[in-house]
Amino acid sequence: MVIIIPAHNMADVIGDCVASLRSDVSATDNVSIYVVADHCTDATAERAMAAGARVLTRQEGLRGKTYTLAWTIEQLTLLDVVPDLYVIVDATAQVSPGFLHAFSESWQRGEDIITSRAVVSPTNQKWFAQCLGLMLIHRYMQGWYREQLGLSAWLEGRGMAYSRDYIRQFGWRLALPAEQKSSHPTEDWRHGVRAAEQGYRVAFAPDAKVMTPLRRSFVEATKQNARWERGRLMNAMTHALRLLWQGFKERRALKVFAALDGVQPPVALLGGFACGLALWHVCFPDWSSAGLWVFVPFVLVGLYSLLVAYRGHFEGIHFITVFWAPIYVVWRCASFVLAWVFLDHLGPFRAPRKAS
């Protein structure tokens, strides 16, 4: 097994990440940890080596996780390092005991792509981080049920694993954008969808827990939300719609549900719509003919939110976080609007320049 940690200027956190992984490796395991210092200008490489990792330094080519991983796999092949399983972990994350064992067990059952379970780190108690932590609980619940049905889960880029057979066939090219000029934060999801096009499913390993600190400032978290939504919209309008059509055409539930992950709006947006619908009926009863049925979506979203909050209690997320839900819904909906406003600055939605 090889663990790859792409890192750009992560000197402050890389030591903790490597230490958490090393503590999950037993003396009998054949595991190598590689930190890839991608265009770093700080002491990331030095601190990674001090923590016990091997270091690959990358200075050429475009910066970014996707390009770094494509380059790393090529370099490992040149070094004759071809493991049974490639495990990829974010530099800001720390793993819980049993993380690597859960991946190994899933691979031994014949899975080629495996995703972890992300939880918010207890070190970040900001209200927006705790609300995003509940969103990760929703992802966990969704992934668990998908696993029971043999469907494909959402690919969690903070911790994921790929078999040697998969990498030998595809390398990292399914994750690369069509125009290799830039990348965006939903590239891991795009990789999962493109793998589903090839007939692969993303297996969910709930015991492979990876703790993420998320953003610690409200401004940075808002910017990240807008980037996430831009990426979701771009992927939904391209890869997801194509996969959805392909799934219906082939009558394959795996492809249909993998596509729906990208086509469906965020839960917060659905919640905002349900609240708005109910408020409209209260304020303008004479203009609405739906009757009490208009409150059904509101009640369903509310009950599901309480269920997620109850499950989050076991992950250390205080139940009081649910009272932040109205502000969280407004915040996420605003991020969605920002994504639309700036959508034309990215990829295939970029407005063409006029000839001078």
Automatic annotation (TrEMBL):
Leader sequence residues: none
InterPro entries xref list: Glycosyltransferase_2, Nucleotide-diphossugar_trans
Keywords attached to this entry: Membrane, Transmembrane, Transmembrane helix
SUPFAM superfamilies according to UniProt: Nucleotide-diphospho-sugar transferases
Domain of life the protein comes from: Bacteria
TM stretches of this protein: 256-280, 292-310, 322-343
Keyword Metal-binding assigned: no
Pfam families: Glyco_tranf_2_3
Protein name: Glycosyltransferase 2-like domain-containing protein
Species the sequence originates in: Candidatus Entotheonella gemina
